[in-house]
Amino acid sequence: MIEVAPMPDELTAGHLGRLGWLNGCLNENDLTVMIKDAVVKLGFDPESMPRLRQLALLSNMDGHDYARKHSMLASFRVAAKAGKNFDHGAETSAAYSKRLGMLPQRGGAYCCPQCIAEDLKDWGFSWYRRNHHLVGIDWCVVHDSKLSLVDHRNAFSRVPHLWQMENKLIPLTVVVEHLPQNGFLRRFAEISTMLLARERPFLADRINGALAKQAAALELRLSRTGRRPLISDRLSTQVAAPWLCAHLPSWHEKQPSEYFQRIDALATMKTLPGVGEAYAMAMASLYDTTETAMEDVCAAETGQQRTPSKHRRVSRGATFWNGEFWPYYLKCHGQINVIAERLQLDADHVGEVLAALGLPSLHNHEQSKRWAAFIRFCSGESLSAACIAEQVNQSEVEVLLRKCSARVMLAIRKIKNDPPIAQKRSPSGLGERILSPRARHEDNHRASEVRRETDDQRLHSERQTTDPTRHLGNRRFCAK
User: How many secondary structure helices (H) and strands (E) does the chain include?
Assistant: First the structure.
């Protein structure tokens, strides 16, 4: 079997389809047999194992880590009852992994033509992303352009650019051509993306209580009967009705001041969780900024009271974290506490976001033997040789490799080689220019070059003479 590593943010269903496509599986049964045989060879019993866990094993990843980075469990299970808020992908949540682990949050396969073009340029092939399959987000959160739906019954059996070549991509009908830079739709997209990055569900009573408190502060009605407007009434004034009808079942029957169960019940249910996308809609409706919404529910989760900052806080959404944040990471040398202080954000929140982005803290990485082995490996040495040279356990470095995105080595090189900050300080005080959404793609291209070098070096060191195709890399194989 040709090993196929998952790409950044690649959807589980897309990863599964790409695995079958590259290995020449003719149908789903062929793919299932191949995966089970491979799992058995690794010494595990595949019969009682969720497909999500099987893919994690074949990707040499921890099950929890694979679920957090590639499944949509976090969007399905935004909240859970007490005693049921297990980590996504954990052994204790195997039932959820089996039922929901391979599903996209919205039906169908979606892609962004601009992402496809960039993937082909940087990697030679394309893949399906999780953030293109979030309910209600009809636009790419990176390019702000509308998504396309693959017009095929078995869409995940082939990668997006192949369907594009066959004219099988149908642009979505959207309420606005581009994702707005502010307002409800932008907040909803940012909140949905942040919820997707969480490691475990909120406790239902905590997040429901936070929403109820905020609704009461806005003088909204919580009960089924009364004259004051409800959360759903506030929502109806913030976004176009066609969007609500498309993404909320039975919304077309909603009347003013009429209780709408899917939305309004979130603030009245004591311990029962609601639907994932409903939480994102309610949060985007009740709060003026993404950051305030996330702070409130996260503070409620820990039982703490959110205290207003003496500084004016600016919403830091998906656009910021996926592009404009990069100069901050470099300027602060990848140190979470320094980044949090500069952005005036909670350090724990910054740490969670960076973990989701594959950007770990680089604090004291110069003195770490594990980081030294990581750098040796990325510079061309075999993993075993790098670990022996630095006298560090290979498994520790493998954990680090799984946590890091392609940009980490690029950051280490820039931090090491850049001239002093004082020599190139900008008016913003960052010492580097802030990348616009367009300019960040140039940075992504440079990061992909580092990833290519690392892939080629790893292939060279791991290729076995008995089976020269066993470790073919994704980019090299697909480029053919």
Answer: 25, 5
Inter-residue contact 195 to 283 (CB < 8 Å): no
Contact 157, 17 (CB under 8 A): yes
Our CA dihedral for 15, 20, 26, 28, rounded to 10 degrees, sits at -60
Residue 320, token pair as written in the block: 């910021």
**Per residue of the chain (480 residues), what is the pLDDT tens digit?**
888 999 999 999 999 999 999 999 988 899 999 999 999 999 999 888 999 999 999 998 988 899 999 999 999 999 999 888 899 988 888 889 999 999 999 999 999 999 999 999 999 999 999 999 999 999 999 999 999 999 999 999 999 999 999 999 999 999 999 999 989 999 999 999 999 999 999 999 999 999 999 999 999 999 888 889 999 999 999 999 999 999 999 999 999 999 999 999 999 888 899 999 999 999 999 999 998 999 899 888 877 555 444 443 444 666 677 777 878 888 888 888 888 877 877 777 787 788 777 788 887 777 788 888 888 888 778 888 888 888 888 888 887 777 777 677 777 777 766 543 333 333 333 333 333 334 444 455 555 554 555 555 555 544 444 443 333 334 333 333
Distance CA 360, CA 371 (A): 11
Whole-prediction pTM: 0.68
In contact, 334 and 418? CB cutoff 8 Å? no
Tokens of 411: 């950051």
Distances (CA, A) of 189 to 144, 282, 318: 10, 12, 8
Q: Taking CA 77 as the corner, what is the angle to CA 232 and CA 194, rounded to the nearest 5 degrees?
A: 75
- In whole angstroms, what is the distance from residue 103 CA to residue 74 CA? 12
In 3-state terms the chain splits into helix, strand, coil percentages (rounded to 5) of 55, 5, 40
Q: Are strands 79-80 and 202-203 parallel, antiparallel or unpaired?
A: parallel
User: Which of 315, 309, 310, 361 lies closest to 334 in space, CA to CA?
Assistant: 361
Q: Give me the DSSP letters along 265-276.
A: GGGT-SS----H
Per the CB < 8 A criterion, the answer to whether 74 and 68 are in contact is: yes
H-type helices in 61-140, by residue range?
Answer: 63-70, 73-76, 94-100, 113-122
SS3 136: coil
Return the SS3 of 139.
strand
Q: How far is CA 138 from CA 171, 198, 243, 265, in A?
A: 10, 21, 10, 25
Q: How far is CA 156 from CA 15, 18, 36, 113, in A?
A: 8, 8, 20, 16
